[in-house]
Amino acid sequence: MRLLFIGDVVGRAGRSIISAELPKLRAEWGLDFVIVNGENAAGGFGITEAVCDEFLAAGADCVTLGNHAFDQRDALVFIARQPRLIRPVNYPRGTPGRGANLIEAASGARVLVVNVLGRVFMDALDDPFAAIERELEACPLGVGCDAAVVDFHAEASSEKQAFGYFVDGRVSLVVGTHTHVPTADCRILAQRTAYMTDAGMTGDYDSVIGMDKEEPVRRFTTKLPTSRFEPASGPATLCGVAVELDGQGLALAVAPVRIGGRLAEARPGFWQGS
Amino acid sequence: MRLLFIGDVVGRAGRSIISAELPKLRAEWGLDFVIVNGENAAGGFGITEAVCDEFLAAGADCVTLGNHAFDQRDALVFIARQPRLIRPVNYPRGTPGRGANLIEAASGARVLVVNVLGRVFMDALDDPFAAIERELEACPLGVGCDAAVVDFHAEASSEKQAFGYFVDGRVSLVVGTHTHVPTADCRILAQRTAYMTDAGMTGDYDSVIGMDKEEPVRRFTTKLPTSRFEPASGPATLCGVAVELDGQGLALAVAPVRIGGRLAEARPGFWQGS
Amino acid sequence: MRLLFIGDVVGRAGRSIISAELPKLRAEWGLDFVIVNGENAAGGFGITEAVCDEFLAAGADCVTLGNHAFDQRDALVFIARQPRLIRPVNYPRGTPGRGANLIEAASGARVLVVNVLGRVFMDALDDPFAAIERELEACPLGVGCDAAVVDFHAEASSEKQAFGYFVDGRVSLVVGTHTHVPTADCRILAQRTAYMTDAGMTGDYDSVIGMDKEEPVRRFTTKLPTSRFEPASGPATLCGVAVELDGQGLALAVAPVRIGGRLAEARPGFWQGS
Amino acid sequence: MRLLFIGDVVGRAGRSIISAELPKLRAEWGLDFVIVNGENAAGGFGITEAVCDEFLAAGADCVTLGNHAFDQRDALVFIARQPRLIRPVNYPRGTPGRGANLIEAASGARVLVVNVLGRVFMDALDDPFAAIERELEACPLGVGCDAAVVDFHAEASSEKQAFGYFVDGRVSLVVGTHTHVPTADCRILAQRTAYMTDAGMTGDYDSVIGMDKEEPVRRFTTKLPTSRFEPASGPATLCGVAVELDGQGLALAVAPVRIGGRLAEARPGFWQGS
Ligand SMILES: [Fe+2]
Ligand SMILES: [Fe+2]
Ligand SMILES: [Fe+2]
Ligand SMILES: [Fe+2]
Ligand SMILES: [Fe+2]
Ligand SMILES: [Fe+2]
Ligand SMILES: [Fe+2]
Ligand SMILES: [Fe+2]
Q1: From the list C92, C119, C130, which residue is nearest A130 (CB)?
Q2: What DSSP letter does each residue of C129-187 carry, written as one string?
Q3: Residues in chain B with pLDDT < 50?
Q4: Predicted confidence band at C217 (pLDDT cuts at 50, 70, 90)?
Q5: pLDDT tens figures, D134-193
Q6: What is the DSSP secondary structure assignment for residue B26, as one 8-state letter?
Q7: Which of A44, B233, C90, D19 would give a disulfide with C126, using CB separation of 3.0 to 4.6 Å?
Q8: Is any Cβ of chain A less than 8 angstroms from the Cβ of B212?
Q9: Which sites bind Fe cation 1 (chains A, B, C, D) (predicted)?
Q10: Per the residue annotation, which of B2, B15, B26, B68 is the catalytic one?
């Protein structure tokens, strides 16, 4: 199975490159399943139903979120009717929407997608390790699902790496999101889970984590807000990670994806010319 | 001028690859100046005089530090007699050692090296933006020095990127350290400063940020310490960033460096076969 | 029913005043139930079995803990055989000991004691609000118990106050611990739960939160550790809160208690001369 | 000299009790100098020029601020023309307004007032210890001023207490603000500086730190914002600390002040009936 995960789409710049590139990538690479993190898709903060639909129409099978999940308050409503939109699983009981879902690929394969929030340097939710344990007990890889992907939305590299080992051999891919910078450490762990500390954001990198850089620089130097944060509007880079899975849902190959904009391009060599 | 910056060396595994590879790289790539971040070199925490000397002997011109600068208490003493060992510049007035220094390359070029600590999600020191401003006023690029490198030791990608823009055009390279994960975002900013959010660590990546993974995983799941953190001892990856500078000390080319161990290898194409 | 809660006992100075004063107070005030927070009792960090026994012998019915619960590693063992020692309830599943227990007073009254850790500015555990909800469902005041006391061990005043309102009318007393400073805001909330933001510590107030002041001042000014923290050894103040309950376990009167040492003395007027 | 310091005034409820009580207290107690912390005076967030003038008209000689200093953006402008409004001294160089000022009492006595922000669990500013050192060198007690008061606006009790010892004997009073809860630990330190960990807020205590309690409780339990924070509007308590100074500006007596609202009343016995 061929999986593509795309990191935090930021604002219009990020959405544009999704619309422009994802349909082509889906065809060119013969993708079976695509996940897009959309927590910053609407003006940098949260997601609207229209934007979520746009991602699904462009070729995403599923959209994940993060600490900005509900910045657009409508999401608390429309998430209930959108089973392909996944919010962090460790929000308090009673939070609208799903933190994990089993989604059918076009091929019929069943993919478990879980979105989990880390706790180090973030607003505290319930234990992400206990949360994933529960989800994997309920739906074990190879039994309840054909592939399992965790979008671990977290700040600290230590928590992300520990989380990766914790689920090694039990999920297909653990990919970090939230820092908005792609890491160069994707690899296959000992028990064959694909791992990458952060997918990076999909947006304009001539920015501070996707936002126009003037205001962030001003806030760091003056310690005072002057204006609102606005998404940067230059050419975007689509960032993510590509994984080839075997019949048991474990990783055969993993590679970074970076297309467009200001970062060095990266495409999975194992799917080129295929 | 050819610069190599190597990220946080962790424990014996990290030190071994420095000794094995750095002399070769220095010759092969015709390096003019090498900086090694050594804050985790001694058993994962701090640095000893012997380790610092080992790095200098292997081909480093300069060693930088970070929040672990003085974990080995001896460093408070020997740093006074080692002008090539640079601790964070924004420690309180009266802290032993130097936070910036002008170091002569073998070629005679004068390289300003500054180590700065970020403040987001870290123990608070004084303003890193004001600190670099003072250093650059005292020693402007092209006037007081032929090249200027800032090792910005920080957690948050937002602070690192904002810092990069803040000094764009005024230094040769801003490279982040501290997260122990290499980022895939190195680039040349608009005013020709080379930038990379994190150099990554130099150590065994089959670990949690360089440490044996059992204890970190246990602490995240039990919230209780069971034993001490110990550096992982498997094959290390040397991680860093390579920069080619022009006569004004501004960047002509930048590329990631990853050699050995478990990460995908990366070498600067612009120096291959030269 | 007459309840006395005594805040974080710090080191030998704190233990001495417990031994000297608690037996007298128990008799003089005709106390029915006494709780002592012992998380800093052993050298400032954690608790030993001998110290716990000492508190019970001096007149405590129950000992609570906090973020320092297991600083003395033996506590992970002896807590299993000591039903009167209560650790934070929101530690991960599988943590040794109890986070809540129903303890019989000499009078036969059943007192539910719960220890909960806050999450703001603290290492993240699971939701304290959800945790207390579960405990109160399992053992409602007036049904499963005759009185219920929550030691909410937390840093932020906002979280403590919100927690108080959350359980108002459902417990007898919510008392904060952890800041080591007594607050002057004890009161009876609208539904008759007694509330106090922090009980204060029991120890030497000529100190930094109970510790010799030289090292903390040095760390704040130099940002470097020089030596270990040691409990201050001057005359201690016993700090806490006194509550008179009615037959339903709700508060009739509440008053601060401060005896000995450097703080202005406070004793519950409603029990004087009785 | 008779000094009164009044803690963070929150919203209309807090302002009302200032207007109603301060003129009477000034006369009744024969106050020489009054300081009011006004960082939450305008709707809970920041201060306007009208509110600042209102405090001065009611009998304040000086108004201090905190982390909410510039929540009302106008303050960045009018603070320049209001020498009696003091913002945190450790904001970056170039911040409008003054962080310290020498203010003449009606008696002609010169009172140095300094507002300092702590750094533990707060947005990081520059070193508060170094900042106060500079101010006291520039204007030593007994030489440059007849009295010196520091409003140390900070979260952590450890930082507040360490700060108190750091300036002991060099200022008349160190009083903490920011937690919005009065502490019961006011005392005179060894070198005769009066100290209190927190003055408490001046506002409605049937609230979460001065704000209507529904929204804070909801946010803690749901982890989602539903509406804005609004100041609570019930009867307020005026909270602060009273200090009697000798001819050298050192403390002869210190006592808490709590008037009105839901907290137990406290008035300085040493000024009653005088
Ligand atoms: Fe994001
Ligand atoms: Fe995020
Ligand atoms: Fe490091
Ligand atoms: Fe570090
Ligand atoms: Fe404590
Ligand atoms: Fe504690
Ligand atoms: Fe305040
Ligand atoms: Fe504040």
Answers
A1: C92
A2: HHHHHHHHHHS-BTTTBSEEEEEEE-S-HHHHHHHHHHTTTTSSEEEEESS-SBBS--E
A3: none
A4: very high
A5: 999 999 999 999 999 999 999 999 999 999 999 999 999 999 999 999 999 999 999 999
A6: H
A7: C90
A8: no
A9: 8, 39-40, 180
A10: B68
Rounded Cα distance, A155 and A122, in Å: 7
Within 13 Å, how many C-alpha atoms sit on residue A149's CB side? 31
Asked whether residue C35 is domain-assigned, the answer is yes
DSSP B269: G
Q: Please identify every residue of A annotated as catalytic.
A: 68
What average pLDDT score do residues C14-22 get? 98
Q: Which domain holds residue C47?
A: 2-203+235-264
In a domain, A180, yes or no: yes
* pTM flag (> 0.80): yes
CA angle D69, D70, D71 (to 5 degrees): 100
| Domains: count for chain C | 1
Residue A219 domain-assigned (yes or no):
no
Which residue is it, tokens 């970090």?
Answer: A176
CB-based contact (8 Å) between B223 and chain C?
Answer: yes
Amino acid identity, residue A46? G
Tokens 């304009």, located at residue: A204
- Please give the distance, rounded to the nearest whole angstrom, from the Cα atom of residue C47 to the centre of ligand 8: 34
**CATH number of the domain encompassing residue B143:** 3.60.21.10
pLDDT in tens, A90-148: 999 999 999 999 999 999 999 999 999 999 999 999 999 999 999 999 999 999 999 99
CB within 8 Å: B92 and D130: yes
Supply the angle between the helices B157-166 and B128-138 in degrees, to the nearest 10.
30
From CA B113, how far away is CA B89, in angstroms rounded?
10
Q: Among D166, D217, D263, select the one facing C187 at the smallest CB separation.
A: D263
Q: Would you call B221 an interface residue with chain A, using a CB distance cutoff of 8 Å?
A: yes
Question: What DSSP designation does A60 have?
Answer: -
Res A274 pLDDT > 60? no
* Cα D132 to middle of ligand 8, angstroms: 19
% of chain D at pLDDT higher than 90: 98
Domain-located, residue D218: no
Closest-CA residue to A193 (of A223, A153, A163): A163
C206-C209-C214-C220 Cα dihedral, nearest 10 degrees:
-140
Measured between beta carbons, which residues in chain C are less than 8 angstroms from residue A93?
A: 130
Tokens encoding B197:
């959010």
Residues 114-133, chain C, touching D (beta carbon < 8 A) = 121, 127, 129-130
Place of tokens 């650059």: B136
Q: Go through chain C and tell me how many residues it has.
A: 274
Q: What is the pLDDT of residues A163-200, one digit of tens each?
A: 999 999 999 999 999 999 999 999 999 999 999 999 99
